């Protein structure tokens, strides 16, 4: 199941090295302001979906996608985040 997230991260990294023309992923990876705005937009859409008890899975997926693109666009590696989370376990 987590392979899907890993594949998404690898896709982002591949697109950074080998951009695809007119790719939405590449737009997010090269436009940090757009990536940031989309994370804000998607988190609000998820809050609304949870509040309305509708479309939560779709909105959560959108948020994860955009958050991964935001992190990658800012060279924040998921491996480092996982290490940080691991260090917090008690």
In words, what does this structure look like?
There is one protein chain. With 90 residues, the protein is an all-alpha fold. The protein has one domain (3-87): MazG-like (Helix Hairpins, Orthogonal Bundle). 79% of the residues lie in helices and 0% in strands. The chain has five helices and no strands. The longest helix has 21 residues, at 32-52. It is globular, with a radius of gyration of 14 Å. The model has no long low-confidence stretch (mean pLDDT 97).
Features:
Helix Hairpins; 90 residues; 5 helices; mainly alpha; globular; 79% helix
Spell out the blueprint of helices and strands:
Layout: H1 3-17, H2 24-30, H3 32-52, H4 56-73, H5 78-87
Helix pairs in contact: 1-4, 2-3, 2-4, 3-4
Strand element count: 0
Question: What is the class in the CATH system?
Answer: Mainly Alpha
CATH topology: Helix Hairpins
Q: Please identify which CATH superfamily we are dealing with.
A: MazG-like
Please count the helical segments. Answer: 5
The helicity comes to over 70%
Could you tell me the mean pLDDT?
Answer: 97
Shape: globular
Count of structural domains: 1
Task: State the low-pLDDT regions, or none.
Answer: none
Q: In sequence order, what are the helices and strands, one letter per element?
A: HHHHH
Q: Structural class, judged by helices and strands?
A: mainly alpha
Largest sheet: none
- Amount of beta strand: under 5%
The name of the CATH architecture is: Orthogonal Bundle
Could you give the distance between the termini? 25 Å
């Amino acid at each position: 199941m987590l392979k899907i997230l890993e594949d998404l991260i690898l896709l982002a990294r591949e697109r950074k090295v080998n951009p695809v023309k007119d790719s939405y992923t590449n737009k997010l990876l090269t436009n940090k302001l757009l990536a940031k705005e989309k994370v804000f937009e998607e988190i609000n859409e998820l809050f609304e979906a949870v509040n309305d008890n509708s479309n939560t899975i779709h909105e959560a997926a959108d948020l994860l996608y955009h958050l991964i693109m935001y992190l990658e666009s800012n060279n924040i590696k998921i491996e480092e985040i996982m290490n940080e989370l691991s260090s917090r376990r008690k």
